[in-house]
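ingest -> validate -> predict -> emit
validate: passed (alphabet ok, no gaps, 382 aa)
predict: started
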Amino acid sequence: MTGLRARDRQGRVTYVNPAFCKMVGFSAEQLVGQTTPPYWPPEMLSAYEARQVQRMAQGVPAHESRDGFETTFMRAGGERFPVLIFEAPLVGPDGLQSGWMSAVLDLSAQRRVEERARQQQEQLQATARLASVGEMASLLSHELNQPLAAIASYATGSLNLIDDAGERPDPPSLAMIREATQHIAEQAERAGRVIRSVHDFVRRREQSRESLSCDQLVEAVMPLLRLQARKCGARIEFEFGSPPPRVVCDRTMVEQVLLNLTRNALQAMVGEPAERRVVRLGARTHGAWVRLSVTDHGPGIEPEVAARLFTPFFTTKAEGMGLGLSLCRTVVEQHGGALDFTTLRDGEGRVRGTCFEFTLPAAGPAASPAAAPPGVLDGVTA
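emit:
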């Protein structure tokens, strides 16, 4: 349904079609002749009046005539709704402009569809985060058992020291009790860090985009990746340059991409010799984009698997949901980038690993970072 509205050079409404009247809920009699129409929201009145004065004096910018512009109207019942307006000059038989003709599209239904899609995508992301944590439950249990066992041991030792010392413990006993108590506090903090890292990862919901350096993105998911690296007997290295490139992204969603890709890389090297179990994370700037990479030294991806790799619910893992790589590609494409992979081969054509690469918008002026030698990120070794 397209609403039509005509205005003269003074901004008075001279014509509205039935579709426009139905859209805003006002009759033609209520609209024709008005320079301040009732479908303008009161809180936007001054801005709209200023815009109308400018348009009457200077005309409609060429790009708005071609592409239209979005604004907000108000229905008779007070409901605000988004519209897309295309305007063109009205020219009379004498060749002189007599006013403006507008074609108005109600975007309410489109916005509702977009909002539902956004909510569904957010729910899918939350499900994927929960699934990732669920798959790592045994690792988390192992990581928490260590500090909890230490706490129990130090607590038992402290109680024994107190019992042995009686009512008036000597200075050496007090010193040992104090040291044991400090160890208890340290181990409790260690367990708390593990729990908080999982809590923050699962609960994060914000969809805002911000400027971040690539090392910030990687460090945010390291508490979870560290567990996987230890289990696989692997280490994680990085090549980010100095300073690391900065990207504009939705932090939560890109962290999920990095978590999925790096976990996949670690799991792919389980059968490899210990010296080859290295995952390398890289980032380098290419003009207005930053290319991030996750490289493993595993057996590569079979051609029949590669053909379906990004298909939703396709998985080669018994415990997997088949959503990880599909969601990764969706997230990257929502940022305007692309995600793909390359099978790495040596000079004789033998498979030496896989490299997944994706692009994100660079933050600020693009600059090529200086090369830096690889280093172990956050001491991640096994």
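The first helix runs from residue 18 to 24.
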